Amino acid sequence: MEIYIIELPKFEKYRENISNSNLNLWVKFIKNPEVVDMSNKEIKKAKEVLEEISQDERERYLAELREKHILDQIAIEEAGYDKGVRDGIQKMVRNMISQKIDLETICQITGLSKEEIEKIK
Question: How many C-beta atoms lie closer than 10 Å to residue 117's C-beta?
C-alpha cells in the first residue's frame, strides 16, 4: 500500500514538469470524479467504490451526521467563548465598581456604555 499526499495548488503549478501520467490521472479523478479515463483499472475501481458509497443511504447519512457533529461542536465552543467573555467583563465591571472606580474610566476600559454598566450593577 502506498499513500501519497498531493498539494493540489502546487501540483497544478508544476504539472508540466511532472512526467508521471498515472499521477495526472489520479489528480484529475480527485478534482472531478465524473471526468475519468476508464482505461486505468485502479481509477475505474475507485470510481465504482465512490459511486457505491455515494448511493448507500446509510453511508451518506453517517457522513451528514459527522459533518453536523463537527459544526455543532464549533457552534458550542463559540457560544461558550462568547458567554465566558461576557461573564468576565461583567465580573470586571463589578470589581471596578466595588473599588470605587469612576464610571467614565470603567467605560473607557471595558468599551461599554454607561447604560450597559448600569445594567450590570
Answer: 19
